[in-house]
Amino acid sequence: MIDGIKHADFKVSHIKGRYVTHNHIRDYLFQLKPSFRLETLGSSVQGNPIYGVTIGSGTNRILMWSQMHGNESTTTKAVLDLINYLKLELGESKNWLKNFTIMIIPILNPDGAKAYTRVNADQVDLNRDAQELSQPESRVLMSAYDNFKPDYCFNLHDQRTIFNVGETDKPATVSFLAPAFDEKRNLSESRTLSMQLIAAMNKKLQEHIPGQVGRYDDSFNPNCVGDAFQMLRTPTMLFEAGHYPGDYDREVTREYICMALMEALVTIKKGSLNLFTVEDYLAIPENRKMYCDVLIYNAHLLDKNLAYGTKVAILFDERLTGDHIVFVPKIESIELQGKAVFGHETKDAANLRDRLWLENRGVLTLF
């Protein structure tokens, strides 16, 4: 529920799952009314168009981009839901369009999206190309930044299922970062605003997914786009869409990302950033990598070479098969009993029902 309106009322429901490309979103973008100003901002390495949608006429200017990494599609679904909310003129959307001018790049890396890879067609991570600008997609984003002159930047990503929140067994369903602008990770006006806005979004999300919001490590890297824009004194926030229990298609997480985006707009519109502090941001626990997809206890019953009491961590590889993603299990590590690690699924090899589950998921073939 977002301001009394159900997410299902504006969710672009035919665009779903983990595999999202221009083929999936093009028809939706092209049927938008003229007030949603759709333009081709440039082309990818392979000559595919990179689209931008500009909405509204207000003085608060926000630039959002998604699928900089082609296999990170949850936030693309979320920005399409936000566009649809504005298109349907629900809730406060008319007021938002008077207060904001929003530019959204739904898929910055269309070649990577099609191939379902993190990198672009030149095998370059676009989020490590902020200084050289060696790739056409990087230059498209920088040109959009220079021409649009945003007051805020939203850098939208997905994160792996391995992340938990702090020392807890809560999965990091959403994570944020206010990127650093120097090696010492000092505060500036723009970074402080980033932290305050993240704190506002966190407060909202805690009402719905308590304990499931994490904070990314803020090590400085000027080649990362968020750090580079922060160096240019533009408040920039990294969004990471993570795992919600059982939600490998990330249809639940897309709702929480959309909720966070909308809460950010509400906070900016109300001018209520001063209600939140740097300390509120720093109170968000940092992410840790303590999760696996399946944690198997008594794994010595599956492999006689394993010591008694051994547990085995399984991760899923995401593989593009046809037009969808298949989750293929692999052994990530063999851990001694007692090591702190959590499983999104926990199975006991001594339990017949659990062994059948492992067999059905193809896990037993790994032993």
Automatic annotation (TrEMBL):
Keywords: Carboxypeptidase, Hydrolase, Metalloprotease, Protease, Zinc
Alphabetized InterPro entries for the sequence: Peptidase_M14
Gene source species: Maribacter chungangensis
Annotated Pfam families: Peptidase_M14
Stored CDD domains: M14-like (cd06239)
Catalytic activity, EC: 3.4.17.-
Cofactor dependence: Zn(2+)
Protein name listed in UniProt: M14 metallopeptidase family protein
PANTHER family cross-referenced by the UniProt entry: PROTEASE FAMILY M14 CARBOXYPEPTIDASE A,B, SLL0236 PROTEIN
Listed SMART domains: Zn_pept
Organism placement in taxonomy: Bacteria, Pseudomonadati, Bacteroidota, Flavobacteriia, Flavobacteriales
Domain of life: Bacteria
Family (UniProt): Belongs to the peptidase M14 family.
Keyword ATP-binding: no
Residues of the Peptidase M14 domain: 15-367
GO molecular function: carboxypeptidase activity
